[in-house]
Design goal:
Outer membrane lipoprotein wza fold like, wza like fold, 2 domains, 5 helices
Length: 221
Amino acid sequence: MNLIRTRRRVHAVETRGRRVALPAASAVSLVLALAGCRTTGGEFVQVEQLPAAQFETEYRIGPGDVLGVRVWNQESMSTERARVRDDGKISVPFLQDVEAAGVTPPELAKQLQTRLKTYVVNPVVTVTLEEVRPLRVSVVGEVANPGQYELERGAGVLSALAAAGGMTEYGHREDIFVLRNAPAQDGKAPPRIRFHYTSLVRGEKPSVTFRLRSGDVVVVE
């Protein structure tokens, strides 16, 4: 990764339908952090080797989402707009703070039904997504416009590359990586996920079925 060339190109960047301003200081910090972790020769995993769970399409709740929690025939226990806080919890009448991040809306509804049995006989709970958090990813390295982008929910690596203006002539088609903010295992950092540009443009699975998550970083070397 050419650090000097990349630092010069980090600006506010244009997304599909809107712009996301990435402050200069934040952008430089991001590039500096990634500059020292060139993926070539380091630990990585091919996208084809990922477990099936990485490709799940069912939506999981995360910080920033706004949920509607409705308890049938119990208005005092319902709430129309419960925002998921940074700690992953929401506030629900009678139950106070409830962990919501990381589960699907139906799974959360079942959990709430179980807990509300203390107050109601056979409660019926529905959880709906009233407002979905933005999908924010960073794209750095050998792309035309490195920076942070808001993408449509369900976007993949090609969408991120397109938002950043595509790869430069110096980008290596075999060295496209996704760095995911996942818990470390056995004291080691989670492996980088490697993609091949040819597989992406040909629409080959599983490259095109991989879905980005908020906080992911796409790196082109």
